Amino acid sequence: MSTGKRVLLTGASGFVASHILKALLDSGYWVRCTVRSTSKATSIEKQYADKAAQLDFAIVEDIAAPNAHDKAVVADPPLDFVIHTASPFHANVQDPERDFLKPAIDGTRGVLQSVQKFAPSVKRVV
């Protein structure tokens, strides 16, 4: 039941993204998930073993790093959509602006720049 549509879902191991991922897979989308580690990708793969043909992974260790999503947005066939849910979250906050706000802004800006440079097929970013 493939729609033929291809989506990049950033932060796929997060709470909100996990619900989005299920809905996308159930609707027949092919989904490239960005996660911070191979272990997170393996966990998602196990959870959706019956939908393995619809899943792909890109490791993005630091969403705020320059060009962090450049490789993730390149797909063949190309991506149609991007759903950006990745955002830093941890309990050891020393400076909320430095630890949460700046990486979230830089990460979002980075995803948009990567799409602009390398994924002109993308019709919508959410």
CATH class descriptor:
Alpha Beta
Cα gyration radius (Å) = 14 Å
Unreliable residue runs: none
Strand order of the largest sheet: 3-2-1-4-5
How many individual domains?
1
What is the count of helical runs?
3
Per DSSP, what share of the residues sits in E-state strands of 2 or more residues? 15-25%
* CATH fold-level label: Rossmann fold
Share of helical residues: 25-40%
Arithmetic mean of pLDDT:
95
H/E element sequence: EHEHEEHE
The CATH homologous superfamily is called NAD(P)-binding Rossmann-like Domain
What can you tell me about this protein's structure?
This protein has a single domain, classed as NAD(P)-binding Rossmann-like Domain (Rossmann fold), CATH 3.40.50.720. The chain has three helices and five strands; from the N terminus they run E-H-E-H-E-E-H-E. The protein has helices at 15-26, 38-47, 96-118, and strands at residues 6-10, 30-35, 55-59, 81-84, 124-125. A five-stranded parallel sheet has the order 3-2-1-4-5, with helices on both faces. The two termini are 24 Å apart.
Summarize the structure.
The chain has 3 helices and 5 strands. It has helices at 15-26, 38-47, 96-118; strands spanning 6-10, 30-35, 55-59, 81-84, 124-125. Pfam families: Epimerase.
Topology:
Layout: E1 6-10, H1 15-26, E2 30-35, H2 38-47, E3 55-59, E4 81-84, H3 96-118, E5 124-125
Which features does this protein show?
single chain, 126 residues, alpha/beta, Rossmann fold, five-stranded parallel beta sheet, 3 helices, globular
